[in-house]
Amino acid sequence: MYDIIIVGGSAAGLTSALYTSRQGMNTLVITKDIGGQMLLTNEIQNYPGFHSISGFELATKLKEQAESYGANFVYDEVTGLEEDKDCPGMCFKVKTLQDTFNALSVILAFGKTPMDLGVPGEQELKGRGVSYCAVCDGPLFRGKVVSVIGSGEQALDAVNYLSSVAKSVYFIHNYDRPIGSEEMVQQILSLPNVQRVPNSRVKELIGDTKLRKIVTQNTKDHSLTEIESDAIFIEIGYIAKTDFLRGLVELNDKGEVKVDKECKTSHHGIFAAGDVTDIAFKQAVISAAEGAVAALSAYNYVQRIKGKTAIRNDWRSIQPKKKSDNLLKI
User: Fold this and answer.
1) Over the stretch 302-315, which tens digit does the pLDDT of each residue have?
2) Cα radius of gyration rounded to whole Å, the chain
3) What secondary structure letter does DSSP report for 97?
4) Which of 27, 54, 51, 53 has the alpha carbon at shortest distance from 40?
5) Distances from the Cα of 74 to the Cαs of 37, 80, 152, 231, 324, in angstroms?
6) CA distances from 169 to 54, 175, 180, 189 (A)
7) CA distances from 183 to 179, 245, 283 (A)
8) Distance CA 328, CA 55 (A)
9) H or E stretch including 27?
10) Which residues pair with 82 in a beta bridge?
11) CATH architecture type of domain 2-113+238-325
């Protein structure tokens, strides 16, 4: 039985793990990866304390810091959350693809998930040329031909980055002109190895052991075109995959978890932080701040269950644990 299980391994989840483990809580983080959406950028310039840092490096630092105080990690996907019938109203069962874990409290901090295109061939070719993270997978296609589908700053950033890695980049977008800040659009239009495919949608992805061709359809004349490409980076936004929480915690019309100023959800013992919540601004530093709030709220909740004193801050000087004291649980 863990004191606290945290679902998610990006800014919110890792900060929560740091705060709960520092308070001596038996903490488990369940996550599919470390970094989440932070891995989508190769440079973060607005995280306090760093003039510039990669998403991967920041996530790694946060994880190491949480681990140094005793946080444990399991790499798996959470598929269910429910009250434990053996201790109703007092603890929870967290189900994953491979196991079931028990906790007195849960912090939901798993952010949002990249949206699928929903076209033939996409599911079969995931990880074989179909990617949702240009920064993560772009280097695998150095010197090759790649494509980006999407609009807005997310897609523009991907095109800009990939242009420095790939031989050439096809930029597929459903408008006459790319959508985004004028400065960024002008920069993309000036790149010599970027070829735009305007007013187009992806209809099918073709390949066997890997992606080979992309079928696009022009939205004006409905003509079909085949583009030979070694990879496609899908940059069409994110969704909150919270269906498994329906009926347990209150969600808004976007599927985001509703929280109060203490990051409490509508269900006692369940807290939430970061992009999965209904907070207006989605930034790494805001997610981290929410992670700290959720952690302290969850800590106080567990303390009350145990009949102990709650706290309002985390100013104590605590020595990190030795690595040997913090074995990875799998």
Assistant:
1) 999 999 988 877 77
2) 22
3) S
4) 54
5) 19, 15, 34, 30, 17
6) 23, 17, 18, 12
7) 11, 41, 21
8) 23
9) strand 27-31
10) 93
11) 3-Layer(bba) Sandwich (3.50)
Domain ranges of the chain: 2-113+238-325, 130-235
Give the Cα separation of 249 and 5 in Å (integer): 16
Say which residues have a Cβ less than 8 Å from residue 149's Cβ, sequence separation at least 6. Answer: 117, 155, 172, 173, 202, 232, 233, 234, 235, 236
The answer to whether the CB of 158 falls within 8 A of the CB of 245 is no
Q: Which two tokens stand for residue 162?
A: 């990939």
The kind and range of the H/E element at 225 are: strand 224-228
CA angle 231, 206, 170 (to 5 degrees): 40
Amino acid identity for residue 97 in this structure: L
Q: Are strands 238-239 and 113-114 parallel, antiparallel or unpaired?
A: antiparallel
CATH number of the structural domain 130-235: 3.50.50.60
**Per-residue confidence at 324, pLDDT binned at 50, 70, 90?**
very low
Q: Tell me: the pLDDT tens digits for 204-225?
A: 999 999 999 999 999 999 999 9
Q: Estimate the crossing angle of helix 11-22 against helix 55-68, to 10 degrees.
A: 20
> Given this model, what pLDDT does residue 144 score?
98
Please tell me if the domain spanning 2-113+238-325 has the same topology as the one spanning 130-235: yes
